[in-house]
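As agreed, record minuted below.
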Amino acid sequence: FIECASFVSPKWVPAMADSSKVMTGLQKWRMEEYRGTSTDTDTDTDRKQVIFSALTPNIKGFTDAMNAGEGAVDEVAIFGAASETFSMKNIGCGIEES
């Protein structure tokens, strides 16, 4: 299980602007094993069993994760806030909106 990306606003976290590319790249890596084009010498790694997860703080992030490419994101982590203040400071919107 690897949490690989966060589908957050690049306005707030510019380093995560390419999360979609990261996830589709990992999906291509995983599919190399199916096609027999892998150059890995590590025979203990079963790429099919690796779960790629992404953090999604709101519905926009969730939608972007689901649109990253077929099979690119196996699971999403959705987080919530316990207070309006935390939610506003952390993701820029209130609990209800997030």
